Amino acid sequence: MSEEIISPSELEEELRKCPEWEIKGSKIIRELEFEEFMDAIDFVNLIAEAAEDASHHPDIDIRYNKVKLALTTHEIGGVTEADLEMAIRIDNICDE
GO: which molecular function terms (predicted)? Predict the structure, then answer.
């Protein structure tokens, strides 16, 4: 897996596969809303398991029933292939 920052034009192209994600600075962001707080927590626990398995961890912000996920490769300061792969894993969890 490449540890290079994906160019802005390539990132826009790649995010067509993940339309729920948007580019914000050096990150990609997805926001979700759930019916209840515990639904949000259950979702975050699933994301945490996937992140541990992939050894790539999103920034997670929980506000009652809202969850905001941000992906970036902190070591190099931008979005890499690892972030896109994690976004796809997260989208798959959302689809379950």
Answer: 4-alpha-hydroxytetrahydrobiopterin dehydratase activity
